[in-house]
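Sample entry (201 residues):
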Amino acid sequence: MNAPLPSQAKRPGGRSAQVQAVVRKALEELIAEEGRDKVTVPAVAERAGVSASSIYRRWGDVNGLLDETAAHRLDPNRPLPETGDLKAELTAWALELIKHLNKPGNASLLKAAAALAGTEETNCLKNRRNEATLLVQRAQARGEATPTVQQVLDHMMAPIIYRLIFGSGVEPALAGQLADEVFLLITPAVNKAEDTNTRSS
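Predicted structure, serialized as tokens:
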């Protein structure tokens, strides 16, 4: 078998998964060391050992790289909790998010991505919305009474993100507390439905 020609070899600034991982790691290290305001594409490229042009081609600018890195750290393609009970699934989902964002560097990425998002949703928020939608729809298909997707985001995800951005961290126990609270929102509707069924039987 003939050896590949030089032009066929992978370039250091290619789009391979390995190069993407190196670039993301360089970004995280620079943010931790210098802060978001001092991070530039050339600085990330130098730390990662790739060309700046490869970063521009793949991510557009440092903001695009930051947003994708923040979302990438919590894999949107991972399997979601599936226990047959929505409250338990939401608790596990929230706990996973808390543990992820409590890891060193992840909260910094979240804060920086949120600051750059403006009025737009970050990829991280879009992914969490999609996950909440899947969990709720799956529970509805099982016949469970459920909160709305927006209620899950407002009363579970938002408090976690708020505490991480403006506070010093989040305790894992908050996951169960928030799941209990979001289900209190639908308790009156559930009780009313049960009373109606009792009267009609």
